[in-house]
Design the sequence.
């Protein structure tokens, strides 16, 4: 049975109540403009479906985020020139900046895993006791994102099950030293925000 398509005539009856700042007229105008540009189609029953053009634009501008929590450790030195590592364990090497993490690669959402296996970039933001730093790396279709214990960003293009970004602009040794000093305390909570961007 062929789906009938009709021109936009107004918001669907099931549209949620607008907030005080958004009026039904605003919604009607936005959908009308999107339809004129070929971004959405209005189907009977009040369903709005993005067109192929609309999906491409949506996917090109979408971002995916994930937040992780880890802790400092007295043995953290963060002197590695190639990697930055966060681990669920308490084993430390020169690239480790956080232990007892609440997530590893395998725990990421399906959406983030798929985004990491694209040709996008990943930004890792690190925050601890009012000090923050960030790292930018490249995603890759070759990433496995399957480690059950670690998350790693690398300056080179080596890929392991724990790698979530390659060719990064920083390694552990490049991170702010005042942040690393804070992370030498086991009581310091490290907040890690991963964001995949177009």
Sequence:
């Amino acid at each position: 049975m062929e789906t009938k398509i009709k021109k936009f005539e107004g918001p669907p009856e099931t549209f949620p109540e607008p907030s005080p700042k958004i009026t039904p007229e605003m919604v009607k105008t936005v959908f009308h403009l999107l339809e004129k540009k070929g971004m959405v189609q209005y189907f009977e029953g009040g369903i709005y479906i993005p067109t192929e053009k609309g999906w491409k634009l949506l996917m090109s501008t979408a971002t995916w985020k994930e937040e992780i929590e880890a802790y400092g450790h007295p043995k953290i030195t963060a002197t590695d020139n190639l990697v930055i590592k966060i681990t669920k364990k308490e084993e430390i090497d020169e690239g480790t900046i956080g232990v007892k993490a609440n997530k590893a690669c395998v725990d990421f959402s399906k959406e983030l895993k798929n985004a990491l296996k694209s040709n996008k970039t990943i930004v890792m933001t690190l925050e601890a006791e009012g000090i923050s730093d960030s790292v930018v790396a490249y995603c890759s279709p070759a990433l496995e994102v399957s480690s059950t214990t670690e998350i790693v960003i690398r300056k080179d293009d080596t890929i392991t099950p724990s790698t979530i970004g390659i060719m990064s602009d920083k390694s552990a040794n490049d991170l702010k030293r005042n942040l690393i000093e804070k992370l030498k305390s086991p009581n310091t909570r490290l907040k890690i925000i991963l964001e995949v961007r177009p």
Q: What stands out?
A: The longest helix spans residues 24-36.
